[in-house]
Amino acid sequence: MEASAHHTKEVRWGFLSTARIGKQYVEAIKKLENQAVVAVASRSLEKAKEWAEAQNVPKYYGSYDEILNDPEVNAVYIPLPVISPVKSCANEGFSMPIIQTGMHCEWTIKAAKAGKHVLCEKPFAQTAEEVNQMIKACDENNVALMDGKYLRFRNSGSVLIIADSRCDVVSLSEGKGNEETA
């Protein structure tokens, strides 16, 4: 596959979260040419520092706004929390997850306005209206909006596919298999 001009520039990733899934993306990105994870942000500076040191990421921030202001970062990965357990009144002691992806929409729009390309983890958004707002913000700021899909196959390896909003494959990484499923 021949690379187009917009795919040849180095992608310098900033991660908006110290979520566990981010570690898998760091490993995949390390295998790609012209890409590096250069910063991570968390609501806790201590957590960001610990995560950055463990993943060998050079910069860390104690707020998501700080990473959006970093001129070295030109793309962000958004794996912010999406599931909040709640107790059901009908079934005493039963916890049921409720999907809360409002943070995806909010931070995608903020990242787009900061001129950062966006890779947003699933679930992408709560509503079609949020998706439309995210697309509009990215279009208006001439940045790519990507939906992250990490597929893991039992005993046969893992594949990270990053595609932009026009469904062009931006990068592909294969890793070793393990017994985990995503």
Secondary structure: elements and pairs:
Elements: E1 11-16, H1 20-30, E2 35-41, H2 45-55, E3 59-61, H3 64-68, E4 75-78, E5 83-87, E6 95-99, H4 102-113, E7 117-120, H5 128-140, E8 145-147, E9 149-153, E10 157-163, E11 169-175
Parallel strand pairs: 1-2, 1-4, 2-3, 4-7, 7-8
Antiparallel strand pairs: 5-6, 9-10, 10-11
Helix pairs in contact: 4-5
Overview of this protein structure:
The structure is a single chain. The chain is of the alpha/beta class and 182 residues long. The protein has a single domain, classed as NAD(P)-binding Rossmann-like Domain (Rossmann fold). Helix content is 29%, strand content 31%. The protein has 5 helices and 11 strands. Strands 3-2-1-4-7-8 form a 6-stranded parallel beta sheet, with helices on both faces. Strand 10 and strand 11 form a beta hairpin. The radius of gyration is 17 Å and the shape is globular. The two termini are 28 Å apart. The N terminus and C terminus are likely disordered.
Helical region count? Answer: 5
Largest sheet: 6 strands, parallel
Structural class: alpha/beta
Largest beta sheet: what is the strand line-up? 3-2-1-4-7-8
In the CATH hierarchy, the third-tier topology is known as Rossmann fold
Report the top-level CATH class. Alpha Beta
**Level of helix content?**
25-40%
Strand content: 25-35%
> Residue-averaged pLDDT, rounded?
75
Within CATH, the superfamily carries the name NAD(P)-binding Rossmann-like Domain
Morphology call: globular
Rg estimate, integer Å? 17 Å
Count of all domains = 1
Architecture per CATH nomenclature, i.e. the level-2 architecture? 3-Layer(aba) Sandwich
Strand tally, please? 11
Distance between the termini: 28 Å
Q: Which residues sit in consecutive blocks of at least 5 with pLDDT less than 50?
A: 1-8, 83-92, 151-182
